[in-house]
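Dear V.,

Thank you for sending over the compound details. I've combined the ligand you provided, pyridoxal-5'-phosphate, with the protein sequence from our construct and run the structure prediction for the complex. I'm sharing the raw inputs here so there's no ambiguity about protonation or stereochemistry in the SMILES, which I know was a concern on your side last time.
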Amino acid sequence: MSSKQITVTSPLLPSLDDFIPMLRDIWDRKWLTNNGHYHKELEKALAGYLGVNYISLFTNGTLPLITALQALRISGEVITTPYSFVATTHSIWWNGLKPVFVDIEEETGNIDPEKIEAAITPRTTAIMPVHVYGTPCNTKRIQEIADVYGLKVIYDAAHAFGVKVNGESVLNAGDMSTLSFHATKVYNTVEGGALICHDEATKKRIDYLKNFGFAGETTVVAPGINSKMDEIRSAYGLLNLKQVDSAIANRKATAEHYRTALKDVPGVRMLKDIEGVQHNYAYFPIFIDEKAYGMSRDDLYMKLQEHDIFGRRYFYPLISTFSAYKGLESANPKNLPIAHKLAEQVLCLPMFAGLDEESTNRVIDVVRNKR
Ligand SMILES: *Cc1c(COP(=O)(O)O)cnc(C)c1O
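Below is the predicted structure of the protein with pyridoxal-5'-phosphate bound, written out as structure tokens.
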């Protein structure tokens, strides 16, 4: 059974032939970081591509989460989801705030807006939802709740690059949204990220915060951090932006192939496209109902590995089960039944631009035949 390994993801790489002349230009300019030429170009290009007005580049997707909480001066408790990558909750902890976990919707894996109000206390100041797998949260309902209780909303949109709802970027919802440009994401700058806000004064403040709080050569306006994107990765990012549309189209074709081939398999649930939503096919999760499928999720996960196919259980284990957080009252599994259910059922199948049909068929064969 020695066959080509199929990984869950593979990075979108720009052409080296196109990258080398840009590197020469950077060498000639001798300006490597601190809001240089390519940094400015990439911010402009991303704002245009994504359909947002104010975007600030960061060195990864975690620091914009931490910085958003700082920029909005969030205090006390932040309502969030346990069904995400750990960075979401870590960013709350790093601000000395208390994360409060709320259960999720079975259909999407996103925070359940109808369960948010019960978690609000006099100390709650913000909600940090995640557009899990790139599926937009119910942003309208979340905003209604935020408005009634006077809460800020910061979306972890690490999965939602390019996602639109009725033609409008999902990144325009809430007070701020963050992106990750990590190598494994739909769009990457090797490592990188961004923070999206909705007015110029806030962008200015964010730009101070990601540069140690400097507002001028001798003025420091806040205890900032260092998260400045460099010129080399900005240039790489400009090149990758040119091919991201075709990468998403390629992912969509793979998703359609999986959906057609697996739709009649009992016990396998897949996500559906939502009307009016421009999806990015960031992940291809399947949810295994062990009884109906006749095999557990973990046995399928191991079976795929026997065939050199490496799926990932995003998001298992839940953030609320890690030692840093499991002592919180809201981390009690009784409070999070749907999140626990999905964490036990989920398996993300290989999904990336350039995954060929032969490989997809190999994955499908194992899922269908369980051997
Ligand atoms: C990837 C990811 C992050 C963190 O991004 P990095 O660029 O790896 O720091 C945060 N939240 C979610 C949901 C992610 O998937």
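A first observation: The radius of gyration is 21 Å.

Warm regards,
I. M.
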